[in-house]
Amino acid sequence: MAVPIRVAVSGAAGQISYSLLFRIASGEIFGADRPVHLHMLEIPQVMDKLEGVAMELTDCAFPTLAEIKMFDNADEAFDGINQAFLVGSRPRGPGMERAELIKVNGPIFVGQGKALNRAADDVRCMVVGNPANTNCLIAMNNSDVPNDRFSAMMRLDENRAKSQLAAKAGVPVADVSNATIWGNHSNNQYPDFENAKIDGKPAAEVINDEAWLRDTFIPTVQERGAAVIKARGASSAASAASAALDHVNSLITPTPAGDWFSASVCSNGEYDVDPGLMFGFPLTSTGNGDWKVVEGLPMSDWARGKFEASLNELRTEREVVKDLL
Q: Which of 74, 143, 227, 234 could potentially form a cystine with 113 if both were Cys, beta carbons 3.0 to 4.6 Å apart?
């Protein structure tokens, strides 16, 4: 058997985690011969539900699942871990403004950032819980773990964008590449069709419908989460979990030549984004958990306006939580 991996999942009794945990435990992501030690973190009020999840995981008899531990304390849950999925966060309530949500979730990610100091030297942390970019910014700024070990999920938006482009072009989704989601995981994100490709050709040329790309494609991707909630009466848990696994897989698998993937990472000033801000970029990886921003992509003035709107939103969010950084 390969070297074991210790994986922590916060919000482990929630719906996203319910679609996530079993695939992690099965060996799908980290390898069919790699033992998984699963650390599940929840709030005290739902530890009974978490016990039920643990029972189901046990009953699956996954050969790769070496250990299950349950915690209601982040310091204990993150002790010695190699990978963290920070899924748990408080959802927005009726009438709650985004700034209020950010302030409510901020202290949670302060504590979890500090708790990550107990993790293994090679720990990587991805944030799923919304508002993901700013929650990740808070955790990163409250941890001694290097900034490049933190990332927040834009992959759900990327997957949505690929699916929409594929459907419009009448091709399999595998034919769509180079999809970028710039900026924030919010309805101000910028899904970039100008640099996307379909079967190796510019997506805008293949689809040849500028009005659809600007006025239908972009808002559809931006508002897809709300559309799912309206249709099924619940949030997009299964697709979010699948995207979280895609995100990590892209960091531990070499990026195919000529392609890239989207994630929110700590800016080093690329594309004139403020250094230190968590921002969605196109990335490549050597497959060792590392990443590099793809630089020099062209952007029309119209696209730059969309880009700047998302950047300014993230600057505003950073100002809201400045006392937590």
A: 143
